[in-house]
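Input:
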Amino acid sequence: MNNTTDIFDKAKIEVQKLWANHKELSNFVNFPKNLVLNSLKSQKTSVTDKLFNWNKNLNTKLLELHKAISDLSPYVNWEQGYKEKEVGKDFLNKYGFFELIGPTGHFQTSEMALYVNFLDKNAYYPWHNHEAEELYFIVSGEAKFESKNQKEEILSSTKTRFHKSYQPHAITTLDQQILSFVIWKNKFENISKIVQQ
Ligand SMILES: [Fe+2]
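Output:
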């Protein structure tokens, strides 16, 4: 790798390969054609270095993909999406995401959005919901997924979980961090709201 564009291209190729190999993804939404690399500013957050340095205790079936995504970490526009009063300081120390593909993402398209989510170990992502239908795809690590009117389950590498429009969901990590893709068919307002259960 010699420059940032190569690092982004490598990540795009790995995500494209993933779509070709996992029906759950291609059935949910087609991988967009003609993605254009935007020059977004990089923005660090509490988990930027944690993802970049995560190469020990890797629980993944997708090593190349994991590496391609963690290599991006210093160059992407990390966000958190919530305020401390909504989710607490501890959560914000352990959580971050970036829009790799989407209307305002590093790769621009109006056809879908793919957010890369990182959640550190021993974290609780409180119940929340949003208008967009959503598919989680786990790249590495492990977490417990809960959603309303559905059985909870522990998900690890290559597993998926679908959330309907406005279906509340929550995520808990134990002794492992988790790297996942969050895929939205439509971006809508890009607002997740914390909800009481
Ligand atoms: Fe969600």
